[in-house]
Hints:
The chain has 638 residues and is an alpha+beta fold. It has 11 helices and 32 strands.
Amino acid sequence: MANVEDTLKRIRGHPSLLLIGGGNELYPVELNPPSDISSFMQEATKRIAPGTPFILSSMAPQNYSKPFDWGYAMAPQDGNYGFNLIGDYFEVRNPGLATADPAWGEVPIGFQPEIGAASVPTLRSLQRFLRSAALSQYPAEGAQYDEVGAAWMFHKYEPMLTTVQNDTTLDPFVYDHVYAYGPFGGVDAWAMAANMAQYQQYQALFEGFAGKAFIWYGAVIMWKSQSPWPALRGALYDSFLATTGGFWGTRRATSNGLTFTDQLALWQQDAAPGFKANGTLPRPPASAFFGEPGPAAFQAIDQSPLEWPREAPARPNLHVQVSPKSLTCAVVNRGQHEYPPQLSSSGPSTFTVWATWRFLNGSAAADPTFRSVGGEAAGRFAPTTATACDGGAFVWPASGQTLLLEVALVQVSPAGGEGVVVSRNGYWLSGTSANPDAVAGRANIGSARPAEAPSYADIGQLRSGPGGLQDVQVNGSYALRDIGDGTYQDVTVAVDVYHDSATDGISPRAALWVCVTLLNPVTAVANRSTGDFGEDDLEPRSDQDARVLPTMWSDNCLPALLPGTGRRLMATARVLVTAQASLPLRVEVSAARRCQVDTASPSVSPPRLCSAVPCSLPPLPALRALLGFRMEREHKTC
């Protein structure tokens, strides 16, 4: 009981305190916790942390012989911890859970205390703890957790599978979210596809729950954000502090998605170009989520201070999103206040969501379309709620291919004229089913997507040049700030990644899953793999992990860059001071490509997805005599 009081005094003033729980997954009510401890915890909470909600258990297994006791626990069930069809997060309450009570029907969960999905680190992290023999035995298509190698089982591999059964006359279809991108040319491509699948899954998870905030749900807690050891489940960043695809999917679902130049325009209170009104209808904004026109577009911001993101004022906390199943759109105000914060004397602003569909080669798949949102009479978004778009769902173009969908929320002042983008988002969606039987009875009618278990096999048909990313240009610059302890320096990095248009003689196509990594070869760590059951592995390893971890990127692992476009990414990190004359920081860029096809037997050698040979900047010179921020720039075309 003394520990209860001490804990309450320690946490009662924490800004992130939502509620106080007596325990995790306690059961049964009559015995756990004992009545004297139970009553004391409730009394102590009222006395020490008055006004803070208290509940005895986060989750408790439901006793179907009587109604669930909502005063005892927040939910009768937790999870699920696998992968769901991404559309279900938007259209199905508590996706992945079976909460049917024979006595009194379904038990809806308003506060979901635990939900998560499988997680696989990037290839570099896998190489840190799995030996080469284990890496070569990466999971086969449809493999369950007990159908993988011993090393994968030891590290708690959790499959990224969903069982689909829309037709009871057919056998269930096991949909493999990773092999939707296959087949693969090796573990490097498998790991990349696994991270792309995680991105989609976590983006859908948080967008789906936010879209039903205070309608179906009051809150959701993800379990868990990080694993304390090299595990293959439940992490947005791994035990080495490297982010996964799930991290960037979560970031996408919980941010306004604005690019660097979008934010600069808002910061300068100047509308971005290209949004002038055209009669009574606004013009669609230029593409930016999948790349801004470059490299000339970046020249205007070359002189902008690298520390600008730290000093920028608060920006709109709006998030525009689209259900990948119904193609309906909504705007979520993730802030605590109405937006706009006050109405203009001349009337409310108008808000429009623009949708642009593109093929993987960057060409338009349909004319841009828009939906109004918020209502012209209101012109404001209530805090922590979702506002559905008017005018129905967007229409899926008549195509059996994977398409890129970009949506942009444009705000136009009551005086008309120019507007400004206040939120962006993007998706890659497929019009091809991985198994037509899995979606029996689902017709491609109106705006409905033609498949629920999509195939992204055409992504594997993209390719770069034989040497890797032959058509990606990288401009890197960084500045150092000495923190005064003589051991570490803070580094701020600006990286311009520009996707040229078919410089290697191949027809234009988007660069997919463009990820940037900051390296410091001086402080590289030798990879130390383990045996099948965690014991030290004496296998000699020549490779090293030179990543600077953690690195805090403004954005990363871009879903796509259209031909002829680029993005500016910012990062901060803390690096070890060395005795060398220069700090040999490198910026590495990788993206999806296609393995070479066996030209002798093309019919039996389908395109396989491979990860690209990374491209790195040469070392950037260190800055020792520091007076505030200074910049050194380097450029390389890969």
